[in-house]
Write a structure and sequence with these properties.
Structural class: alpha+beta
Number of domains: 2
Helix content: 40-55%
Number of strands: 7
Largest sheet: 4 strands, antiparallel
Number of helices: 9
Shape: globular
Strand content: 15-25%
Mean pLDDT: 93
Strand order of the largest sheet: 2-3-7-6
Radius of gyration: 20 Å
Length: 326
């Protein structure tokens, strides 16, 4: 497949004709995503938003791009310690990050285990909210290897194929917003995995902790891609496309920074605030898209504030690290 990594995605957002065929279901959306011509995950997220016809599908594109960026970040972080080639799926792979359990996704809450038994690696446990698990070929499962000498839960990230014996994926009821995004309860009953399915590096520091920042960045990018296309297609006030494009360009720069960078966390908080202001100020513009599109947008908009509490805590911690909290 031709990859246009050198092409400026902003050019694509502002020059490509904005009319798109409606998407019937998630399978149709995955087929469209597979045609993405860009290499960089952040560009793929922006492209996905532009190509989507609703916020739920834009989220799926951003989430998928975020997982690609997470795996690339793991390889970058480990450097020479990372196997060559890094033994993980391509950017077109259908994956789900399975972390959340009944007690949450904090390291202390991870009760799913990865154990060596009779020469085999076995995963056991239950994940209560795994996004896209039922539409994925594989899950990246956060599992515990047991406690270290200080009592800290040692985590690993393990690739588990959804078709593997012992894996049961049961979709939860649709959420009130973006019901097109499936979330599942996943049971892992004596699931045997290979040693190469265990991602190198600490499961929390290298993967789980950075993912919230990476996901926020790429999902916001996808949402802005959708806003730019909608503004152009339906004749919104030009300031909507202009401001969304400027925010998209800022996100592209931010995506190059380490997801652990406190300065990046502060900037990301500012971009979320600017996006919220833009969308709130111009909420009425969606009526120009017709009643059905406007109703769907307003139904799904809460998706963008789901993790606001976690983002606020991250931003507060970032200011404390920087030593110059306002």
């Amino acid at each position: 497949m031709l990859r246009l990594s050198a092409m400026d995605v902003l050019d694509h957002l502002l020059r490509t004709p904005p009319d798109r065929e409606p998407l019937g279901d998630l399978a149709a959306w995955f087929a469209r995503l597979d045609a993405c011509p860009f290499e960089r995950p952040i560009d793929r997220a922006l492209w996905a938003g532009f190509e989507s016809d609703r916020l739920g599908f834009a989220f799926v594109g951003g989430y998928r791009a975020a997982l690609s960026r997470l795996l690339a970040w793991g390889a970058e972080t480990l450097g020479d310690a990372a196997p060559r080639p890094f033994p993980w799926p391509s950017i077109d792979a259908r994956m789900s990050l399975a972390a959340t359990e009944s007690g949450g996704a904090h390291p202390r809450a991870i009760a799913t285990t990865l154990r060596e038994e009779s020469g085999a690696l076995v995963v056991r446990g239950e994940k209560t909210f795994a996004t896209l698990a039922s539409s994925s070929d594989a899950m990246l499962v956060v599992a515990s290897r047991g406690a270290d000498a200080d009592g800290k839960n040692r985590l690993a990230l393990v690739r588990v194929r959804t078709s593997a014996p012992g894996v049961v994926v049961a979709d939860r009821p649709p959420t009130p917003f973006a019901p097109e995004i499936p979330h599942a309860r996943v049971t892992l009953d004596d699931v045997v995995v290979a040693s190469e399915d265990v991602l190198p590096g600490d499961g929390y520091d290298v993967y789980l902790k950075p993912f919230r920042t990476i996901e926020d960045t790429h999902v916001l990018a996808a949402a802005l891609g959708l806003v730019v296309r909608s503004a152009r297609a339906f004749g919104f006030d030009r300031v909507v496309a202009e401001t969304a494009s400027a925010l998209a360009l800022s996100l592209r720069a931010l995506a190059e920074r380490a997801p652990s960078d406190p300065a990046g966390h502060v900037a990301l908080a500012g971009l979320f605030q600017d996006a919220r202001t833009l969308l709130t100020t111009h909420a009425g513009e969606w009526q120009k898209a017709g009643a059905a599109v406007a109703e769907r947008w307003h139904r799904d908009a809460p998706l963008l504030v789901v993790a606001d509490g976690a983002r606020q805590k991250r931003t507060t911690a970032a200011w404390e690290i920087l030593g110059s909290a306002p």
